[in-house]
Specification:
The chain has 165 residues and is an alpha+beta fold. It is built from three helices and six strands, in the order αβββββααβ. The protein has two domains: 68 residues, SH3 type barrels, CATH 2.30.30; 52 residues, no CATH class. A six-stranded antiparallel sheet has the order 4-3-2-1-5-6, with no helix packed on it. It is 39% helix and 27% strand.
C-alpha cells in the first residue's frame, strides 16, 4: 500500500514538473528570416556583427528589404543585408533571479554570523536566545537582496533576431 502511494506521488511530481516547465514553441520563425527585424521596434538597441568580423552597436532607425539603418554615435549608418552575419537585440536583464539568490545567501550568512554571536550564557539579565540569529538573517537578507538586485540590473540580455545562413 505504501509503495503504491509513493508511486502516485512520484508520478504526480513528474507530471506537474513537466506541465509547469517552460517549453520552447517550435512554431517560432527561423532566425534566418530577415522579416523578423520588422518586429523589432524603432529605437531598440542592436548589436550587429558583420561578415567581416566587425561588430557595430547602435539604435535601430528602420529596416527595408535590403538595408538595416542604425544610429551609431549620433550618426546614421546603413548596413547592407548581404554584409550582416548576425543581429542581436539588447535588452535590460530582469534582476529577479539575482535578487532572490542574494536574499538567500545574505540571510544564510547573516543567520550564521548571528548564531555565532548569540552565546548561550544563561547568566545574562537580557536573554537573547535566537534574537541575534533572527536579526542577522533579516539584515543579511536585506543586504544580500540589494546586492543581488544591483548585480542583476548591470548586465544586458542578448536576443538573437537574425542570423545569415
Amino acid at each position: 500500500m505504501r509503495t503504491r502511494t509513493l508511486q502516485f506521488a512520484t508520478i504526480g511530481i513528474l507530471l506537474s514538473s513537466l506541465l509547469l516547465s517552460t517549453v520552447t514553441v517550435s512554431a517560432q520563425t527561423a532566425t534566418n528570416d530577415w522579416s523578423r527585424l520588422n518586429a523589432v521596434p524603432a529605437g531598440s538597441k542592436l548589436s550587429v556583427k558583420l561578415k567581416s568580423g566587425k561588430t557595430i552597436d547602435g539604435t535601430l532607425n528602420s529596416v527595408s528589404d535590403t538595408t538595416l539603418s542604425l544610429t551609431v554615435k549620433k550618426a546614421a549608418q546603413d548596413l547592407r543585408r548581404e554584409d550582416i552575419a548576425t543581429v542581436h537585440q539588447l535588452k535590460k536583464k530582469s534582476a529577479g533571479k539575482e535578487t532572490l539568490i542574494g536574499l538567500g545567501v545574505g540571510a544564510g550568512a547573516g543567520a550564521a554570523l548571528g548564531a555565532a554571536g548569540d552565546t548561550a550564557d544563561e547568566n545574562n539579565f537580557f536573554d537573547t536566545d535566537g534574537l541575534l540569529t533572527a536579526a542577522g538573517a533579516i539584515i543579511g537578507g536585506g543586504i544580500g537582496a540589494l546586492s543581488g538586485f544591483f548585480i542583476g540590473r548591470r548586465g544586458r540580455k542578448r536576443i538573437l533576431v537574425y542570423e545569415a545562413k
